Amino acid sequence: MMDRLDHLVLTVADLARSIDFYSRGLGMRDEVFGAGRHALVFGRQKINLHEAAGEPVLPRASQPTRGSADICLISAVPLVEVEAHLRREGFTIELGPVPRTGATGPITSLYLRDPDGNLVEVSEYA
């Protein structure tokens, strides 16, 4: 019945640091919408950001917690280019490249953490 993921929400401590990580590190585009809310846009989906100390957006998760997410992103460019870019920009790669299994088959993945400690897996299909 479902077609794709439209968006997910991350609770963050520092909006600017999170925007920098996802835009400078992973090439997402910061988009302001609604009453000054921020989303990180890529492909046909986005990550909405909720600041932990900010005014709560309702409805929301029952226990919004920084650092509890584990997401996998499929790269639009070869993983070797992503790895080189991340290293040039000073981002720490925690693990990889390593073989994993994606939603539709084998993938190769790099793992890093965003400023809130969320695990971010960046992958490419074979």
Word description of this protein:
This protein has 126 residues and is of the alpha/beta class. It has helices spanning 15-25, 79-88, and strands at residues 7-12, 29-33, 37-42, 45-51, 70-74, 95-102, 105-113, 119-125. The strands form two sheets. Strands 1-4-3-2 form a four-stranded mixed sheet, with helices on one face. Strands 5-8-7-6 form a four-stranded mixed sheet, covered by helices on one side. The chain is globular and about 40 Å long. The model has no long low-confidence stretch (mean pLDDT 95). It comes from Sediminicoccus rosea. This is VOC family protein.
A few lines on this structure:
Pfam families: Glyoxalase (PF00903). By secondary structure, this protein is an alpha/beta fold.
Q: Topology of this protein?
A:
Blueprint lengths: L6 E6 L2 H11 L3 E5 L3 E6 L2 E7 L18 E5 L4 H10 L6 E8 L2 E9 L5 E7 L1
Parallel strand pairs: 1-4, 5-8
Antiparallel strand pairs: 2-3, 3-4, 6-7, 7-8
Tell me about the biggest sheet? 4 strands, mixed
Strand order of the largest sheet: 1-4-3-2
**Can you tell me the overall shape?**
globular
Instruction: Summarize the helix and strand pattern as letters.
Output: EHEEEEHEEE
Derived structural class: alpha/beta
**Average pLDDT score:** 95
N-to-C span: 27 Å
| Tally of helical runs | 2
**Approximately what portion of the residues adopt beta-strand conformation?**
35-45%
Number of beta-strand segments = 8
Helicity level: 10-25%
Rounded to an integer in angstroms, the radius of gyration calculated over CA atoms is 15 Å
Low-confidence stretches: none
